[in-house]
């Protein structure tokens, strides 16, 4: 499995029913749109995918249905991370059977394990599955930043194949690039505002939430970087800020989901307690979509 390019951490479509059940018709529409737009992977149940409010049974069912929809066109990454090593192992085994191609495993949150505990946590998970594992570093949400030492140690594990860094700290990312040199482990950027500098530092691609909406723009940025069209890439990177400015107007992922809805795919609202965006935010989203010539 080749890890490269733009991988979309997709929003999880929900119906507007009492239990906010998963909308599989909208899931297919979204995935087809993204693959047609040139993304190199689909990542379900990350931060934008609301993994923290989706049950293990729903995770397994969604993995199964997503694998059927993708039908081998691109790799399927599934978020199985959590606070309990055993619970992560059990869920990882279930999604492996359900058709996942790779796992994304966020660091524990709420608690703050030390480096040796984190290494042990990830080694036990890796030993329990034959799937490739992507480490997920997002300190603003977990209060843990994976150290260079931890990444160096985990790069020695055969099926730990990549790290997604959403710290937004280029020195941190540079440390990961150094830690993985000479190994099979790849570095992916998870901060959409830093795609260009990260790839220039040695990242092989981006897990970019904004690609749910401005798919061709984000894929175009990656392609410009690969073609060494630096001026074009810098301009496209800067233009992502139009969308990022609007994303701050609601609780994650409410604005992202509403943006997808306004493009005609009924992904529904975020699960409660996150509420739908207010009408004035709707207007700002429409202005943003017009700026990218999407409506």
Description:
The chain has 295 residues and is an alpha/beta fold. It has a single domain (5-230), classed as Alpha-Beta Barrel (TIM Barrel), CATH 3.20.20. The protein is 46% helix and 12% strand. It is built from 12 helices and 8 strands. The chain has helices spanning 24-36, 56-70, 85-98, 115-127, 139-142, 148-154, 170-180, 195-201, 215-226, 230-247, 254-262, 279-291; strands at 5-9, 41-44, 76-79, 102-106, 133-137, 160-165, 186-189, 205-207. An 8-stranded parallel barrel has the order 1-2-3-4-5-6-7-8, surrounded by 6 helices. β2, α2 and β3 (76-79) form a beta-alpha-beta unit. α3 packs parallel to α4 (115-127) and α11 (254-262) crosses α12 (279-291). The longest helix is centred in the C-terminal third of the chain and has 18 residues, at 230-247. The model has no long low-confidence stretch (mean pLDDT 97). InterPro entries: Aldolase_TIM, DapA, DapA-like, Schiff_base-form_aldolases_AS. It comes from Faecalicoccus pleomorphus. Pyruvate binds at residue 207. This is 4-hydroxy-tetrahydrodipicolinate synthase. It catalyses: L-aspartate 4-semialdehyde + pyruvate = (2S,4S)-4-hydroxy-2,3,4,5-tetrahydrodipicolinate + H2O + H(+).
Features of the shown structure:
12 helices; TIM Barrel; alpha/beta; 295 residues; 8 strands
Quick structural overview:
With 295 residues, this protein is α/β, with parallel strands linked by helices.
């Amino acid at each position: 499995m080749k890890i490269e390019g733009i991988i979309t951490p997709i929003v999880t479509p929900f119906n507007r029913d009492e239990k906010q059940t998963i909308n599989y018709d909208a899931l297919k529409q979204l995935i087809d749109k993204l693959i047609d737009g040139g993304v190199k992977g689909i990542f379900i149940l990350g931060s934008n995918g609301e993994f923290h409010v989706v049950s293990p049974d729903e995770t397994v069912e969604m993995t199964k249905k997503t694998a059927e929809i993708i039908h081998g066109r691109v790799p399927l990454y599934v978020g199985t991370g959590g606070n309990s090593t055993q619970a992560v192992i059990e869920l990882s085994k279930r999604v492996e059977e359900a058709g996942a191609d790779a796992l994304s495993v966020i660091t524990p949150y709420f608690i703050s394990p030390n480096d040796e505990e984190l290494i042990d946590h990830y080694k036990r998970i890796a030993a329990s599955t034959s799937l490739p594992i992507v480490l997920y570093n997002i300190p603003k949400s977990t209060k843990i930043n994976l150290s260079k030492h931890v990444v160096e140690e985990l790069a020695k594990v055969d099926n730990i194949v990549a790290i997604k860094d959403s710290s937004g700290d280029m020195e941190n990312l540079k440390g990961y690039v150094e830690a993985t040199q000479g190994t099979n482990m790849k570095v992916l950027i998870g901060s959409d505002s830093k795609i260009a500098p990260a790839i220039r530092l040695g990242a092989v691609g981006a897990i970019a939430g904004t690609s749910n909406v401005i798919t061709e723009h984000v894929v175009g940025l990656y392609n410009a970087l690969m073609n060494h069209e630096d001026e074009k890439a810098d301009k496209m990177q800067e233009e992502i800020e139009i969308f990022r400015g609007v994303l701050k107007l609601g609780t994650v992922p409410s604005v992202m989901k509403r943006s997808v809805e306004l493009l005609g795919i009924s992904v529904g609202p975020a699960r409660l307690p996150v509420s739908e965006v207010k009408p004035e935010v709707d207007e700002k989203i429409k202005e943003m979509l017009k700026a990218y010539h999407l409506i």
